[in-house]
Amino acid sequence: MLQLIFVFIRLSPMQARPRHAFALALALAPIQALVGCSSAIAESGGVMTTLGETASDACRAAMAEWAPLKGAADAASASATYEGSALQSYIQASDAAGERGDDLTISAALEGGDLATATASVEVALLARLRLEIAAPEALVDDPRAAWDEAHCLWEGAIQGLAAAGEAAGDPTLDAGLVTAIEGAFADGHAAIEGEAPTASFDEWVLPPAKQVIEKNLFRALHRLLLAEAAEGVSDPGAAARALAHFGGLRDRLEGRNTPGIAIIEDMLADPATIDVEELGRQLAIAFAKRTRAYASAALDDGASGTPSGYKGAIEGRTYLALVLPAMVRALGDAGLDAAAIQASWDDYADAVRTGDDIDRASALSEELVQWLCAYQATLGIAACTGSDDEPSA
Description:
The chain is mainly alpha-helical. It is built from 20 helices and 4 strands. The radius of gyration is 21 Å and the shape is globular.
């Protein structure tokens, strides 16, 4: 069976890979389950490589300590597990690499007896490190496979559980397959890396879109989980504390799009008596609706149709669409918005951008997407439809 898999990978034409990667963004679980299995093992320079095999010992040791910490009965036992551990050392190293201060936040929460904040803050720290690692190949690091495998170590060890919780908290139809989509994207990115360090390379039609599928679906999972925790937080301070800590994983998505919303959300979650889940969701949606709008026309605006960068942006937008879609349907369903139809239109748009041979078709599809996204922005109270402008301060 493995020989057949290897032959499939070796003989797949390079030009077919963009379609393969794009399928991940569609969240088609049965297909993605097969894709993930078939591309978890790939050939590089005649050597078979397994997804995750070059992850660091430090990551593996840290991930082994995550489950005991998460399952700790109280902050005191969690502190005993965390302080001086491989997990703490790994987060401290991640802080240095990403110029963050997660270890201080986690240690302070444990010292203050706040287990909910501490454990959620560990997840945010590990998510930040995962994002750093999956961005490394495009930053032209010497060993893109090691970076990709490091991210997969974090996924398997901790972040997969976060994503599964987010999928379970989301729309039972529109969010189904979220975890499978990420797993498939990890497999695709791994299969796209060729050669050995320091001269390894990757297929630019495959790995960058796969990175977007992973990252933006993680934002989607965190978004769903945050809203669910905020709803629980009205009567459960621990849930509100987790929501506030988890917001740290989405905070930068609001910067430059709804910067004033950051303080609104943080103040609300810090005082559970003031939580308004609908308003919290609106503040998040303002930022994500703008980001989605930007990618509905970015390839055409930038003259990047038919290029890897244009295609990557189309996939990024398609994955952002999955994040905002449940709220869009609630807001615009009576106006005729159909979830399957707008998803199909974006799929067609991404395909048109990929091929680059029919600008008129791509433009017509883009206009359709922009019209719906601008209508959605209007329901959110955004003064003028935009993909880039920040909200004005109150």
